[in-house]
Amino acid sequence: MVKDATDMAKSVRSGQVSAKELVLETIAKAEKENPRLNAISSTRFEKALEESETRDFTNQSFGGVPIFLKDLGQEQAGEQSTSGSRLLVNYRAKQSDNYVKRLESLGFIVLGRTNTPEFGFKNISDSQLHGSVNLPDDITRNAGGSSGGAAALVASGVSPLAAASDGGGSIRIPASFNGLIGLKPTRGRIPVGPSSYRGWQGASVNFALTKTIRDTKTLLEHFQVCQMESPFVLPRLSHEDLFEKSLKPLRIALQLESPIGGQVSADAIHAVKKAAHFLEKEGHEVFVLDKQPLDGIEAMKSYYIMNSVETAAMFDGIETSLGRQMTIDDMELMTWAIYRSGQRISAKTYSKILSQWDDYSRLMHDFHETYDILLSPTVADVAPKHGQFDLSDQLRNHLRHIDDFNQAEQQDMIWQMFQESLNWTPFTQQANLTGQPSISLPVYRTEAGLPLGVQVTAAKGREDLLLQLGELFENENKFV
Which of 228, 168, 162 is nearest to 192 (CA)? Predict the structure, then answer.
């Protein structure tokens, strides 16, 4: 029985199944499940079938395995790439990203693209262009964001893994909501460029959502680079690091309180305590933190400044390409507010917040001199209901007229705009600012049967520790 993508590729190599059969099977599953999920934004089924018959999959670690790309970045030459925005509904990529080229070189066959929120700004997937993505376990709930479509396809069994990206939790949040493994690798681990090398100043990283640690390890081993032309260069992990090292006793710091002071559900706290108890039984030391490693509110304010400036720069490029100025009718209201707020932020303010990020990285380096691992909830609660984070009419009116306010007022409005959803997912963003690897593990379900992950974060470059711990949970049948 095929269990994961690694098994799929082995079956193709041994001749037990053909790549075309895998593609046909995945297409059939997608056509059955997607009407219920709304997880797919576009398809290339005919091209994928042709590739399944004409490409050589010899000696490729994932030869013949079907996959869906995320419709945000991850551009494939000649294919539609909307970023969840009606502004780009007719845009087709002029070249393939290095990430996509690596996927293809590993033998994956791309079947299409998955639904995301507009430009990936939200922790739910509800773009006005493609509509909301439904949680497979409860279609009245959102599958999360911004890799919501990818998560829904994997959780529903359409594919064993899917391409994803994480700029503030966008792999780990939907992994938690959908009961999947969601690894955000260290900044610099995964290929970047040529269209963008910095990705939200290094906060955004591409990888995947998976169901097994074996797939996660194998994908990471073959995907990783030491990319000298990129701004973030990282030594590669060896095969021994990923597959052969024994796990030594670790010092684990337990974080139970929200970094921004919001409420954390009893289920999320119970999930982490249960995981910590298991790790203690396995010989690891667990210490409950009485102080947050970083100032969570300050960190998030710096994140929103980055997001505003990068969005303003992005729209400068779109305006040049289209030959006209952007208007409020070109985009969703939250996108408009982020874009316009970026116009008011000075270069020296931006420089200061990037220096703050360097300070955060140093502080977390020092933190990991004492503790090997930071263990926390991935999210504060289960997947939200559709419409749960809708904005008030008063705030929406203010956002429409955001140009009438000064910079401080604008940033306060951005905070208000995200506050309710941020309270739901306050634990993931800091690893994006510091560049650390972080993983959500599917170790808990509520009495109602809804998944909740726990988040494990390590020092830069130490994905091996995260995967060793993940394997420990998996081998002891702690994944649910």
Answer: 228
70 is catalytic: yes
Beta strands in 404-450 (DSSP E): 438-445
Residue 346: active-site member:
no
Q: Quick one: pLDDT band at residue 2, thresholds 50, 70, 90?
A: low
| Residue 166 pLDDT level (bands cut at 50, 70, 90) | very high
Exactly one of 170, 176, 204, 258 is catalytic; which is it?
Answer: 170
Q: Active-site residue among 96, 132, 146, 258?
A: 146
Residue 17, exposed/middle/buried by CB under 10 A (0-12, 13-18, 19+)? middle
Mean model confidence pLDDT for the chain: 97
CA–CA gap between residue 473 and residue 480 (Å, rounded): 10
pLDDT of residue 3: 81
Residue 130 burial (10 A CB sphere; 0-12, 13-18, 19+):
buried
Whether the predicted model's global pTM rises above the 0.70 cut: yes
Tell me how far apart the alpha carbons of residues 59 and 301 are, in angstroms, rounded to a whole number: 47
Q: What confidence tens digit (pLDDT) does each residue in 379-407 have?
A: 999 999 999 999 999 999 999 999 999 99
198: which DSSP letter?
Answer: S
Tell whether the model's pLDDT for residue 99 goes beyond 90: yes
| Paired residues of 436 in beta bridges | none
Which uninterrupted H or E stretch holds 114?
A: strand 109-114
Q: Are 23 and 52 in contact (CB under 8 A)?
A: yes
Tokens describing residue 408: 């401080």
